[in-house]
Design a protein that fits this description.
CATH superfamily of the largest domain: NIF3 (NGG1p interacting factor 3)-like
Strand content: 15-25%
CATH topology of the largest domain: Udp-n-acetylmuramoylalanyl-d-glutamate--2,6- Diaminopimelate Ligase, Chain: A, domain 1
Helix content: 25-40%
CATH class of the largest domain: Alpha Beta
Strand order of the largest sheet: 5-6-8-9-10-7
Shape: globular
Distance between the termini: 46 Å
């Protein structure tokens, strides 16, 4: 089958129009009309992921984070990132990215995170602007101490560590807002939506002070919890392949691309 068949079906689920302006989603490397037989699903496109694709005979990489956030100029192959692009071209590997369109899609990234946290009555908490519909807010089955909820997140997402921004780890929390990735700037929207605690990654130092000033507890489990998409997207593509009788194999990347190590 041709890559555009799979991509067209996926974009019915998460249309490119859902992406925030300027997000470099879609085709990254390759041709839409090229045949694909095996798809590797990954959070990040890194040199080790490309080698994993080559080792597994994959001819398409489906990623959440775009491989090319910025134009490449010049294409100096001494630069590791550029050499990675060249490896994809040498081995005929198409690279496709679904980023903020997957974040905003109903049943997409933020719904998967909410589901993993066992939230109910889930709904978007960002109501306007280009990011409208991006995050989710829902309820835990029962209230927990903030410290216990943080510990639960470590187990849920198999984390070695996380950061908590709060003045009282014993306060009870039940209404949880979540936004995968870098969502610190939306903490006031989460609070105004009724969140007792906000879960998001990459919180900046000064934003953390603002969160304390507004008395909104925030848990930063890191950006890598979005790796939940690997199995979710792979499963979705496999289901579509079975229904449409696509002659493809889909597998989630087995690699951990989190750049951080907790000591």
């Amino acid at each position: 089958m041709r890559a555009e068949t799979l991509i067209t079906r996926f974009e019915q689920f998460a249309p490119q129009a859902l992406a925030v302006p300027g997000d470099p989603i879609g085709l990254q490397i390759g041709r839409l009309d090229q045949p694909v037989h095996k798809v590797l699903v990954t959070l990040d496109v890194r040199p080790e992921v490309v080698q994993e694709a080559i080792a597994n005979g994959a001819d398409m990489i489906f990623a959440h984070h775009p491989a090319m956030f910025r134009p490449v100029q010049p294409l100096d192959l001494a630069v590791p990132q550029n050499e990675m692009y060249a490896e994809c071209v040498r081995h005929g590997i198409l690279v496709y990215a679904a980023h903020t369109n997957l974040d905003r899609a109903a049943g997409g990234m933020n719904d998967w995170l909410a589901q993993a946290m066992q939230l109910t009555a889930v709904r978007p908490f960002i109501d306007d602007g280009p990011e409208a519909g991006m995050g989710r807010i829902g309820e835990l089955p029962q209230a927990l101490r903030l410290a216990d909820f943080a510990a639960q997140l470590k187990t849920t997402f198999a984390l070695a560590g996380l950061r908590v921004i709060a003045t009282d780890l014993n306060r009870q929390v039940r209404h949880i807002a979540v936004l995968g990735g870098d969502g610190g700037k939306f903490f006031r929207q989460a609070q105004l939506a009724g969140a007792d605690v906000y879960v998001t990654g990459d919180v900046y130092y000064h934003t953390g002070h603002d969160m304390l000033a507004y008395d909104l507890p925030v848990i930063d489990p890191g950006h890598h919890i979005e790796a939940i998409m690997k199995k979710q997207v792979a499963s979705m593509l496999q289901d579509w392949a079975a229904t449409a009788d696509w002659p493809i194999t889909v597998l989630p990347s087995a690699l951990n691309t989190d750049p951080f190590t907790f000591l």
